[in-house]
Amino acid sequence: MRVDLRLNPGLAELAGHHPRLTVEVPDGASVDDLLAVVASDHPALARRVRDEQGRIRRHVNVFVGTDNIRDLDGPATVLANGVEVAILPAVSGG
Amino acid sequence: MDNGVTVLIGTTKGAFVGRAPSEGEEVTIDGPLLGGEEVYAMALDQRADPPRLLAGTLSWHWGPAIRWSDDLGATWVDPPEGAIAFPPDTDTSLERIWQLVPAGADQPGVVYAGAEPASLFRSDDGGETYQLVRGLWDHPHRPDWQPGGGGLCLHTVVLDDTDPAAMWIAVSAAGVYRTTDGGDTWEAANGGIRVPFAPEGDEPPEFGQCVHKMDRHPDRPDRLYLQHHWGTYRSDDRGTTWVSTGEAIPADPPPIGSEPRPFGFPIVVHPHDPDTVFVIPLASDAQRWTVDGRCRVYRSRDAGDTWEALEQGLPQQDAYLTVLRDAFCADPLDVPGLWFGTRTGELFASRDTGEHWSCVARHLPPITCVRAYAT
Predict the structure, then answer these.
(1) Which pTM value belongs to this model?
(2) Are the C-beta atoms of B29 and B18 separated by less than 8 Å?
(3) For residue A1, what are the CA distances in angstroms to A19, A87, B235, B280?
């Protein structure tokens, strides 16, 4: 199946300046599975989203549709064909 | 080499590069570089041709990294897979780079990185890739190390110019550890360093000291100086035993413990005199600003037995400044300059080793590290 991955400008720069990527993943894939596929194609991008242990960074938000995966099943959230996944920096800092 | 000084300035929002002629107060500041990234550690590896600028960076969104520049910051390399990471079996994620130290000319390509959570990494390729130093990571004390206010960080790496297999590291709040076999085995080296912030019993504990910074002069290979959370110390036996040296430095009455001891973060040894050492006392330990609202650098010329205040040109009224552990350094000129940055974004310099000072930059972001090189 295919997932539409939407990136903020900073991450898009690490993906060949593409703000959107269409990613092929197996049926029933989770957010974690999606990010693993992204890591193989775009390691610089993936390293910004997940740390070396595969954990999504604290100030990075991942949305499936309009839902933050924190409110779903986290990285184990299962994706549907054609869904939009957005990776966005949290409004944090100082 | 134009006999000038290049000053690397790391801040919480990027880095700057200062350039100064060999004498005088004129300093030009270039930057910002790496805008928006916290830069806690910088180094200029002058063994490389051209010299390599190393920076430990942290984006609160996108995580930590070690980047390098071979053109003094005009362009940077951040490899896709990253230069540094914990191995999978540690189940540990890198949080921040606190220290970058190129080794001596006899170890080309070797660079050490101190990190948070407290760990030491070594590079053998000029800082492009790093491996965890397992001997320290597997030390039986490590699970019991406790963080200081800045986190559980390995913030100091001191190399032994006479022996490439020997070095010291310092961790807040675990203390000093040393190795004599290139990092395979380590032992705590905190004998005599008191910890009034913890139950001491009859003797200070083997580890748990909150060492803020440590320095050493190559001409006295057995001597080390350190600024502790609670006082300054000197060791003349490579860290086996330490003696308190800070009784003459101003300090506020302690909230705990029995006697005042000077608080502060950095300690800097004169580059050409192993008996001369500098500190910047801060009111301890809640305020952490310059004592009495006066910004003073203290100098000892007798290895810490006596101290004198250096204040000419430094603000002496309503100056509540904080200088962090890596934000004070000396340059290596024949008459060394001293440089320090504040959390309020001022860079102070003395081109005559502390006799006269001036503010050479202001309105920078909070300064986290300052390093000066002859270039």
Answers:
(1) 0.96
(2) yes
(3) 20, 19, 66, 62
Which tokens sit at B226?
């350190």
Is residue A94 one of the residues assigned to a domain?
no
> How close A34 comes to chain B (CA, Å)?
18
User: Rounded to whole angstroms, how far apart are CA atoms B250 and B311?
Assistant: 14
CB B228 within 8 A of CB B244: no
Confirm whether B21 is domain-assigned. Answer: no
Alpha helices, DSSP H only, in A1-94? 9-13, 31-41, 43-49
> What digits encode the pLDDT tens for the residues B134-181?
999 999 999 999 998 889 999 999 999 999 999 999 999 999 999 999
CB contact at 8 A, B246 and B304: yes
Retrieve residue A17's tokens.
Answer: 């300046």
A93: closest CA of chain B, how far (Å): 7
Q: What average pLDDT is seen over chain A? A: 95
Structural domain contains residue B70: no
Q: Which domain holds residue B135?
A: 89-337+346-361
**Does residue A27 sit at the B interface (CB-CB below 8 Å)?**
no
Closest CB to B63 among A10, A48, A93: A48
Per CB-CB distance under 8 Å, the chain A contacts of B59 are 48
